[in-house]
Amino acid sequence: MLRRNPSGHRPQVHESAYVDHTAILCGKVIVHENVFIGPYAVIRADEVDEHGEMEPIIIGAHSNIQDGVVIHSKSGAAVTIGERTSIAHRAIVHGPCTVGDDAFIGFNSVLFNCSIGAGCVVRHNAVVDGCDLPPGFYVPSTERIGAKTDLSTIPRVTVAASEFSEDVARTNNELVLGYKKLQNEF
């Protein structure tokens, strides 16, 4: 469902993207080409800053926002999801936040007030809060990364983790085409 926010902004969804009919996109949301947005995802850009302004939530081309994901932002801050990036089931991305290209964010993970570099992998039930994670870093499941975390203790993405991320992105890109064909059957 595409909804206008109280400021009057409506989501802009590229015609090649697939948005499940149970998902809710509200306000200043920009969805680029060949994006998959799964069931019960909520992407809501409706809060404003002290000047009554807001930045958009942008979902980059060929990315996937899986079932039950919540993307929102505090006080109109920007949220940008890069290209070919996977946000897995029930993850929360709360802005201000930037997730780079080719990243993987695992099930139930929470991102807040952070930047995730290109090619990073944040595994399941992890939290990244208040820090900038450089490209190519690997956050193990259940790990908490914050402003005081010594990033030299964080491992780099392995070939296997990178291949897994690429496979998830590829699979969800194929789902876009399949669901677009079925779209009028619902």
UniProtKB/TrEMBL annotation:
- InterPro entries assigned to the protein according to its UniProt record, in alphabetical order: CA_gamma_LbH, Gamma-CA, Hexapep, Trimer_LpxA-like_sf
Keyword terms of this UniProt record: Transferase
| CDD domains cross-referenced by the UniProt entry | LbH_gamma_CA
Give yes or no: UniProt keyword Magnesium. no
| Keyword Membrane appears in the UniProt entry | no
Q: Which Pfam families match?
A: Hexapep
Gene3D superfamilies linked = Hexapeptide repeat proteins
Query: Family assignment?
Result: Belongs to the gamma-class carbonic anhydrase family.
What name has this protein been given in UniProt? Isoleucine patch superfamily carbonic anhydrase/acetyltransferase protein
Species of provenance: Herbaspirillum seropedicae (strain SmR1)
